Amino acid sequence: MGVRVICNPNYAAHVPPHEVDNGAVVPPWEVPGRFDAVRAALAAHGGFAFEDAPALSVDVLTGLHDAGYVAHLRDTSAALAGGGGWVMPSVFPFAPGEPRGEAARRGAYCFDTFTAITAGTWAAALGGAAATYRAAELVAAGETRVAYALTRPPGHHAERGRCGGYSFLNNAALAADLLLDLGPVAVLDIDVHHGNGTQHLFYDSPDVLTVSVHGDPAGLFPYFSGFADETGTGRGLGFNLNLPLPPGTGVDGYRPAVAAALERVGRHRPAAVVVAFGADAHEADPIGGMRLPTAYFAELGAAVRALGVPAVVTQEGGYDLATVGACAAAFLAALGDEVSRGAAVPP
Ligand SMILES: [Zn+2]
């Protein structure tokens, strides 16, 4: 059985107008063409079965995301319907208390100026959650060993009650939550940016191990988390591992970090693994700053496959339209390869 690819049917609904980077208005990196590029590359590669995600009830999100935040996303998109407008924060919370009024909610429910809400944002974000939920359902039911949620916008930066980093709903966390029915779960985040939202959502949990290999946040988004001394809290102490790498890291630097990540994942003895997959550590990525060649993504896929556990993969970053698809295809083909699989797989 090849890799099941569950597509977000609403991926093109969210069209951000721009980003605000250090006060400058710049074109958005996170665009619908990213999805098209990945889908085309997977189709050209062969061995992938595509299906659209069925609709998802918003109730599924309530355990993961704050109800006020979810309502803000839904209602803001609804209020923008029919126009080309957007909502982006100008003022962030500097005093305690619940936000009172629309301008306060913009800042309270978002942590950066890269992540505009548009008329189609809610549909696109919910569609991504639907694709991820379906992928996790298929893996949990044993219907496939590897399922991939092909979606945009990404999810791994979204916290319980805040969007940011182009992310609105945390797809990787949603998958991990569902897969807990099988036993302990590990989330491996190999996007070049720290998976701060996923870490945040499971920081006190010993059941979901979160491991992230990423660019050092001292110089790379999201700046405020992703450091090596963040190891979890309470019962979750010891169940978060960050492996930050310096700018310009190539294969020689990634190999030992990924080996350490996988060693920690293996010790967790997960019943399933969620991979937050980004191609933005590729050498051609315009914002990642790393030096990985396309071929290394196949090595990554094979390394995850060697864990011998079922996997749900969520599409996160990757902003070079010419290579993001090839990276995803290389990773997923190697991860899904049944013939050369080494370790035992649960029945
Ligand atoms: Zn990223």
Structural notes for this entry:
- With 347 residues, the chain is α/β, with parallel strands linked by helices.
- The protein has a single domain (3-67, 120-336), classed as 3-Layer(aba) Sandwich (Arginase, Chain A), CATH 3.40.800.
- The chain is built from 9 helices and 12 strands.
- The chain has helices at 33-45, 67-80, 102-108, 121-140, 171-179, 196-202, 251-267, 294-305, 324-336, and strands at residues 3-7, 19-21, 24-26, 48-52, 86-87, 117-118, 146-150, 185-189, 208-215, 240-245, 272-277, 311-315.
- The strands form 3 sheets. The chain has an 8-stranded parallel beta sheet with strand order 4-1-7-12-11-8-9-10, with helices on both faces. The chain has a two-stranded antiparallel ribbon with strand order 2-3.
- α6 (196-202) links the parallel β8 (185-189) and β9 (208-215).
- Bound molecules: zinc ion.
- Zinc ion binds at residues 191-193, 278, 280, 316-317.
CATH architecture verdict: 3-Layer(aba) Sandwich
Return Rg in Å. Answer: 18 Å
What compounds sit in this structure?
zinc ion
Number of helices, where a helix is a run of at least 4 consecutive DSSP H or I residues: 9
Beta-strand content bin: 15-25%
Average pLDDT reading? 96
CATH class: Alpha Beta
Task: Please give the domain count.
Answer: 1
Domain Histone deacetylase: 30-335
GO molecular function: histone deacetylase activity; hydrolase activity; metal ion binding
Protein name: Acetylpolyamine aminohydrolase
Organism: Urbifossiella limnaea
